């Protein structure tokens, strides 16, 4: 960022001067007018070499010796089945053009032409490329569907970190065909999402992977029995303060976290220089396999004050867990005495992209709807939970939240 700023600072006066000279010494022309009246046909590119990669190829060449070349154009079909074509251009400053988006690992033809400043194309040079297996097909081989709480969980591995989409299809018993139910696009190394809202009867799901050029993998079909999920009964929750828990402040109470109200008073620790993480412990009144929870921050302080930004949930299935001083950070699954880290979470920033201190009205409305987080499917059953806030939105050493709603399998 600093390097870019210095670059602009140095070149901006020179750029202004060049623009001034250009417009003071030439008349205005239409944008679509060719930049040259020279209609000489350029020679073809030569010394063509191909380096293949997954789903594409780098093509290097020597430019024609004629000096009026503006760019080199590559035209090619990326999918023989659909006839979909692409066109890529590379300026005369480069000797390489990238062709990508091919649907299969096979031989394709690429037509190269040099185009002059007068918009005159050279003869075509046909090059054969042999792209390796496209990333979307490799990712599709890792599709995994499994039963999840109230639905199905979909996972794919993308170690190449290229943009792909995992498309989940669903067919109800009365429907003649599958339809898109949920889509997840990412360039992360792991795509992991769940579709919920189903009963526990067998459900017909399918998943395929697509890429940014519209290529689709083969579809994987699977019948899944969603796991039972229900909202945990908040009337059974109870405070279970441990010695390392942070002191409550301002007359608020931990039990406000499950009183059913997202306004008024909630859980609020003392506004002092307290050690991190800011911690609170409570019992669920039942042993349950937890699936997800919704946490509500304090309205009026959206993306600020003591609202949790980075936090963890620790759990214990021990009927009477002993205290443990929790670390600011631990990997999911870390065991500390009677407690296990059941998930690390980051409350996302304003959806508009605005800074937290300048959140829009829509950002604040989104914040106040509460934020849903999921427990890892591998998380063990729990009777007790600990909320451990390692960073608030203001960076202060106190925290507050208004309500928590928890879902899981209580059977």
TrEMBL record:
Residues 24-131 form the DUF4959 domain. It comes from the Bacteria. Residues 258-408 form the DUF5000 domain. It holds the Pfam family DUF5126. Coiled coil: none annotated. Residues 133-235 form the DUF5126 domain. InterPro entries: DUF4959, DUF5000, DUF5126, Galactose-bd-like_sf. This is DUF4959 domain-containing protein. It comes from Chitinophaga qingshengii.
């Amino acid at each position: 960022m600093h390097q870019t700023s210095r670059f602009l600072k140095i070149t901006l006066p020179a750029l202004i001067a060049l623009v001034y000279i250009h417009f003071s010494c030439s008349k205005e022309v239409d944008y679509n007018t060719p930049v040259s009246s020279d209609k000489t046909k350029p020679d073809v590119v030569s010394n063509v070499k191909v380096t293949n990669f997954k789903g594409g190829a780098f093509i290097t060449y020597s430019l024609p010796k004629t000096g009026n070349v503006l760019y080199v154009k590559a035209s090619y079909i990326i999918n023989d089945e659909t006839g979909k074509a692409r066109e890529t251009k590379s300026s005369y400053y480069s000797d390489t053009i990238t062709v990508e988006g091919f649907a299969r690992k096979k031989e394709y033809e690429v037509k190269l032409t040099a185009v002059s400043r007068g918009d005159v194309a050279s003869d075509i040079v046909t090059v054969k490329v042999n792209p390796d297996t496209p990333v979307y097909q490799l990712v599709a081989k890792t599709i995994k569907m499994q039963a999840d709480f109230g639905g199905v969980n979909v996972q794919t591995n993308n170690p190449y970190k290229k943009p792909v989409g995992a498309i989940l299809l669903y067919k109800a018993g009365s429907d003649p065909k599958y339809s898109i139910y949920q889509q997840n696009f990412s360039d992360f190394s792991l795509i992991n999402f769940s579709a919920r809202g189903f009963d526990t009867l067998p459900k017909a799901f399918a998943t395929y992977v697509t890429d940014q050029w519209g290529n689709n993998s083969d579809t994987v079909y699977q019948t899944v029995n969603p796991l039972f999920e229900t909202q945990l009964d908040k009337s059974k929750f109870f405070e279970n303060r441990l010695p390392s828990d942070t002191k409550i402040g301002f007359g608020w109470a931990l039990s406000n976290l499950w009183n059913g109200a997202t306004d008024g008073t909630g859980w609020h620790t003392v506004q002092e220089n307290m050690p991190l993480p800011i911690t609170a412990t409570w019992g669920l009144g039942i042993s349950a396999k937890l699936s997800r929870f919704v946490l509500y921050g304090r309205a009026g302080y959206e993306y600020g004050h003591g609202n949790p930004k980075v936090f963890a949930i620790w759990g214990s299935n021990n009927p009477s867990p002993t205290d443990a001083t929790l670390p600011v950070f631990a990997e999911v699954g870390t065991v500390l005495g009677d407690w296990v880290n059941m998930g690390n979470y980051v409350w996302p920033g304003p959806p508009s992209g605005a800074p937290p201190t300048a959140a829009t009205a829509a950002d604040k409305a989104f914040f106040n709807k509460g934020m849903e987080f999921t427990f890892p499917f591998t998380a063990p059953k729990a009777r007790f939970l600990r909320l451990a806030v390692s960073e608030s939105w203001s960076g202060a050493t106190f925290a507050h939240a208004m309500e928590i709603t928890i879902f899981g399998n209580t059977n």
